[in-house]
Amino acid sequence: MTHLRRLILPILLALLVGGLAVWLVDDFSGPLSDGGDTDFYEYVGYYVAHNLTFWPVPHLNLLHNQTFYPYGANHTLLDWGWERDYWYALCYWLFGKGEPGPYLQYYYVYSLLVTALGAFWLLRGVFGDGRAWVAGLIVSVFNFYCIWKYPTHLNVCVLHWTTLCMLATYRLLYECVPRSAPTQPLPPLPWWLLWVWLHVQVLSQELGYVAGFALTFTVLCAPFLAWSLWQRRVVIPGLFRPAPGHKPYIWLLVSLIGISTWLYLPPTIQIFLGAQAYADSSVEMPPSWSHPLRLLIPYLPGVDEFSIRYDRIFRDTYESYGQTRPGLYLIILAVVGFWAIRRKPLLWGPVVLMLGLCVVYHPVLLPTLKVFPWFSFNRHGGRATMVYPLLFGLLALWAPRPQTRAGWLALTPLLVLMLAEWSWGYRYPHLYKPQIVSESVKAYMQTVRTTPGEAVLDFPFCTIGADGVGAVEGLCPYYREQNAVFTFRRFHQKKVVGQYWGRLLPAYIQPFLRDHWDRLLRPGYVFTPADWQFLDRFLQQHRFAGINLYPDLLSAEQRAAFYAHYGPPRAETRLPMAGRVQFLVFRR
To answer: Is the pTM of this model over 0.85?
Structure first.
């Protein structure tokens, strides 16, 4: 019966978090698409499904012409997230039978459940069931910055392994800090192996932002942990002696470490080595920072970012709802908790140190986080908000329980504030309805897929890097409308000419300039007979099925010229952002 009672709280937590997650996701009827970043994460999963081999170790095919067709490019710098991409690829082949589906929606629900339940399990032994239960909610469904990021920035709103890795690191530090008992035992070997496994697991998440916070916290905790172990050096040999009954857990964890290392380390190394080609390319770092005073903005009506333009007041850079705002209630509780352990620097030192590095970070004037190599490309200080609920929560957990009536009276308005912020903060993300690919788009893409040919030409198309390569050259005249159209090859499965990249080497756009695509893509440009001759030869030589024509981006004269040259459209639909698209079949 005691064991059953211990299961009640985690079951209730799973039901609450699962219900809120399903309510947030809202639509599981099909794949996501908004004509922007959301499509990129869908596409990377599709890419992995078609370009990954597992023998002898996981390895990606990165050098090919599936995009940038027929010239080819190195596809190293995509938005990888190995667990997310493996999940998508597995669902794609196992459940979708080679078709896109609502795989990322289910992955997000899974992520929130793992975050909440894992946090509860790691914290309950130190802070008790009640506090651990509330902490599980705070770091998952009430991390408003992250849930607002879904699904547009799925790479930074999925951070379950990073969260659990940081909590496990703090739990180990707590267990190792000397307390009153001189014979206080060290954490058993399975705990250390769990800690190692979680560090391997963080490699499965976005490396440039998400995994980096877990690694940073470990680095900051290391000297505090080393000092604690040095003070207790007489018992360190006992760390490596498995206790009776621990051997099954040890074998399980060693196996998990081996499997995770095999799954995640080889592709990580492959991407790291491939990225060295871009090491000498420079990207102008925008001064995107977030003012520390945003920490004091509560999630309440009339005072949040939708009511007041704080970027005009603070003169910082607004990126997303909830940036630098874990909740005013949590800030107050963290201050109280810090005061309670102020004489125990081993417990608050790494947390406060990491908060300091994150809160004052400015990518140009004060790049504190860039002392760590994994944050070399960190472009926005506000993105550290993803770990603020966890860091401030670790301090808040130490807030003492009120012992007097006056203490409870003081706590009551704080609890009311917490519930008010939870209800209001969770309201806004649910107002945004993620878009699902329509049946019209699927039918259109099926027409393109079944038309004989190796590739399809989007016209106009977009060939550009986030570093600006391709923009000045005129290779992406309609960036806002077309930066994601290449991702729809996950439906029609043909090669395409354009693509948006995080970084793009100038050498890769030289073939486009050589063939004068910059002139052909110029807005309003009317083809000459020589241009039509080039395009016909290009389509014929490289076995194109036809053209995805975007009439809303062309002048009436341009549209008429395409219809006169290639005939009327065989199919038509509407894509997010890009507008109408018409399929013109190329007849050889």
So the answer is: yes
